[in-house]
Specification:
With about 300 residues, the protein is an alpha+beta fold. The radius of gyration is 18 Å and the shape is globular.
Length: about 300
């Protein structure tokens, strides 16, 4: 168990949106205990969008949150950085429709948060403890969470591609393991999909500076891979960000097989429904499922 955290001071970040192609500016501000992560669209009348399962409106190639018809997309890398560094409470003021992609990983966000400093707060953090397995299956893809003494993510990724084919990795998530083993892993895509994505209004800001791109044979970026298995590590990064939308750290083992944003969110929604399969672990006691979680249904 630990105490809640926020930022020591404001953080200013500017960059291009991966899908919109727009230049976007953000300010991350400290927030009081129990605030959570709240996005504020400064270009849309300061509409607030709480980072929660109930706010998820789309999972097509990224995770999008909405409130009052206003959206903020591609939130997973920033959410992963906040979750990986145990930042519980923060306001994210943003003047565009998605989080800047930066280099396609969470490293820039991690660096800026660590530079700003982390401030410990007085309220303790509760955890959602998994008591029995919960499974979601969709075609050839599956994701599950099982009881575990800690927080662990195991992921299997498989493509019939000569550059990597199958990759598997399991890791206990801690601040240091996230910073060193997960945060630097960049998003990736296939050259053959670029035309389709752009025709749908997506990937307008994608480039070799922020996406690992593969043709039919190999990676075409001049920069070498940061890890031999960077692709599966990025999937774990996405999972860290998406899973944080349940609002509490998950005390369990999440196992993904060819899954992604859509299955991450379906798993969270199924967890909330299956109240007999989890409880809330507080610093002083174990209590029944919290009403604020049930209210997300």
């Amino acid at each position: 168990m630990r105490l809640q955290n926020t930022l020591d001071k404001d953080i200013y970040i500017s960059g291009q949106g991966l899908h919109s192609g727009r230049n976007i500016s953000m300010r991350l501000r400290p927030a009081t205990s129990d605030t959570g992560v709240v996005f504020i669209r400064t270009d849309k009348g300061n509409v607030r969008i709480k980072a929660s399962v109930s706010a998820v409106s789309d999972t097509t190639f990224a995770t999008t949150l909405s409130s009052e018809g206003v959206k903020v997309g591609t939130v997973e890398h920033l959410l992963a950085a906040l979750s990986g560094l145990n930042i519980d409470n923060v306001y994210v003021e943003i003047d565009g429709p998605e989080i800047p992609i930066m280099d396609g990983s969470a490293s820039y966000f991690v660096s800026m948060i660590m530079k700003a400093g982390i401030s410990q707060q007085s309220q303790a953090v509760s955890c959602l403890r998994i008591l029995a397995p919960i499974v979601v299956t969709e075609g050839e893809s599956q994701i599950a969470v099982t009881p575990y003494d800690g927080t662990r993510i195991t992921y299997r990724l498989f493509y019939t591609h000569p550059a990597f084919g199958e990759q598997k990795m399991g890791i206990d998530i801690s601040t240091m393991s996230f910073i060193n083993e997960v945060a630097p892993a960049r998003t990736f895509g296939f050259l053959r999909d670029v035309e389709m994505l752009k025709s749908r209004g997506l990937a307008q800001g994608g480039s070799l500076d922020n996406v690992i791109v593969l043709n039919d044979r190999e990676v075409i970026n001049s920069e070498t891979l940061r890890f031999e298995n960077e692709f599966v590590r990025h999937k774990i990064l996405d999972a860290v960000g998406d899973l944080s939308l349940i609002g509490l750290p998950i005390y369990g083992h999440v196992i993904g097989n060819k899954s992604g944003h859509t299955l991450h969110i379906k798993l969270l929604r199924k967890i909330l429904l299956m109240k007999d399969c989890w409880d809330i672990l507080t610093p002083s006691a174990v209590v029944s499922p919290a009403s604020e979680l049930a209210a997300q249904l």
